[in-house]
Amino acid sequence: MRAGQTAVLILLVACLGLGALVLSCAGALPPVTPGLVAHAALRWPGIDASELHRGRRLYVDHCSGCHALALPQDRAPEAWTVVLKRMHERARLRPEQERLVLRYLESASAEAHASKP
Ligand code: HEC
Predict the structure, then answer these.
(1) What is the reported pTM?
(2) d(Cα 44, Cα 88) in Å, to the nearest integer?
(3) What confidence tens digit (pLDDT) does each residue in 77-102 have?
(4) Is the CB of 66 under 6 A from ligand 1?
(5) 90 lines ligand 1 (CB under 6 A)
(6) Is 56 in the same domain as 97?
(7) Which of the listed residues 73, 90, 104 should we mutate to test ligand 1's pocket, taking the one with most ligand atoms within 8 A of CB?
């Protein structure tokens, strides 16, 4: 095998590894489950799954451009309000979108902390 081919092969393997890493990170972000909706409803009665889905999607789409996404459980539920105050302009979120992101992050954090032993 020529040196050029070897280099291409190494690059290919590196890319595949990176791809797997990115996928595994995305998978760690809590999905919207009935349990999560129930938790959110304690704070926002009547909230439905589609709002949390939109919040999660906005979080992935708007907040991953500059740094890795923090997991909801990395912060206490109430801490996310402060983070969003600092980040919403950078992320170009309209107030309505900011609210959806906050609801997803807060309820996912609350659920994770509540289920800890
Ligand atoms: C335009 C780039 C950019 C975008 C978009 C962005 N951030 Fe950040 N973020 C930064 C930078 C730079 C820092 C580190 C400096 C700082 O803390 O201000 C940071 C730090 C953070 C931190 C760690 C510091 C802390 O306050 O705990 C969190 C959490 C965070 N961002 C969340 C978010 C969320 C949520 C969004 C989407 C609403 C977002 N970021 C969108 C640039 C960005």
Answers:
(1) 0.82
(2) 21
(3) 999 999 999 999 999 999 999 999 99
(4) yes
(5) yes
(6) yes
(7) 90
